[in-house]
Write a structure and sequence with these properties.
binds magnesium ion, 10 helices, single chain, alpha/beta, 6-stranded parallel β-sheet
């Protein structure tokens, strides 16, 4: 069962440990001097990879744009499917790059996954297939020891891809699914951009596991509606008061728009003209980069792109 279907059955809103509702000072106030049509926007949800940074290096103008948006009084939440680092590690790296953020500003898909498991599979024994150590953000999740090959877990968690996604690991996951384990995916991104170009991500492997095991992954990060709702709850704003900026037209922008949030696509990071052209919908706004967001909000000279 997908998380979207679970949400549509009036499941109570999940609480994300360490990411509790916190009304950001200034966020509830009307932001003055901003563009007609943007007056209702009080908070900005921002994807990190490909929007603020590529390979954790800041994109031109992004540090200054984030500062300007904060100083204008907008609430800010960084919402990321990143599975290679914890929130604390991400915050530290972004601070070194000049961004004024702390761990509390960040919602990662692994944090949302821990909350999802606590609600839907309390006490479950899990195995994690992921590149990078995210155990700190999987608070309360019982993970079987890597050398325990005899136990059958209740849940197979698929995180972000890397060298760990070899034949042995994928075949082991396939075996667990055949024996009744549930499949929970932190996200289903097909690829991401690094300074070495586009890299294949776990969504590609997930499709194979689903088809082979006749299983359907329950997705906990973007594009699930619950992930966006958790970010809105943290900022204390409604969907109509928020704007989501991302470089993934489907998982960031159109998924946010389906949740009632205004979507803004940037042409940095993983953006490709062909995925834009072939997308399942149309973004509310398209700008060259995050550096143009303050101008878009103000309605001053900014080139909106098709
Ligand atoms: Mg991105």
């Amino acid at each position: 069962m997908s998380i979207n279907r679970i949400r549509s059955n009036n499941t109570p809103r999940r609480r994300i440990p360490g990411f509790r509702k916190r009304v950001v000072r200034g966020c509830r106030q009307r932001v003055r001097g901003y563009r007609p049509g943007m007056e209702s926007v009080r908070a900005v949800l921002i994807d990190i990879d490909g929007v603020l940074t590529v390979s954790w290096e800041p994109l031109p103008g992004s540090v200054e744009a984030l500062r300007e948006i904060r100083e204008a009084g907008f609430g800010v939440a960084l919402v990321t499917n990143t599975t290679s680092r914890t929130r604390a590690s991400i915050a530290g790296t972004l601070r070194e790059a000049g961004f004024a953020v702390d761990a509390e500003d960040i919602l990662t898909a692994p944090v949302a996954t821990a909350a999802y498991l606590a609600e839907h599979f309390p006490g479950a024994r899990c195995v994690l297939l992921n590149s990078g150590d995210i155990r700190e953000d999987l608070e309360g999740v019982t993970l079987l020891a890597p050398d325990d090959t005899k136990s059958v877990p209740d849940v197979v968690i698929v995180g972000g891809a890397g060298p760990e996604f070899d034949y042995a690991a994928l075949n082991r996951a396939f075996g667990y699914l055949q024996r009744g384990a549930r499949l929970v995916a932190v996200h289903r991104n097909l690829y991401w951009r690094t300074d070495a170009g586009l890299q294949l991500d776990s969504g590609a492997f997930l499709v194979g596991l689903e088809q082979a095991a006749r299983a359907e992954a329950e997705v906990t990060g973007k594009p699930s509606a619950a992930f966006f709702e958790a970010a809105l709850a943290r900022l204390g704003v409604g969907a109509g008061e928020a704007l989501m900026v991302g470089d993934d037209i489907e998982s960031d922008v159109l998924a946010a728009q389906r949740a009632g949030i205004t979507g803004v696509l940037v042409k940095t990071g993983k953006y490709l003209p062909e995925t834009h052209r072939d997308a399942t919908g149309t973004p509310d706004h398209v700008i060259e980069s995050f550096a143009d967001l303050p101008a878009l909000l103000r309605g001053s000279a900014v080139q909106e792109l098709g």
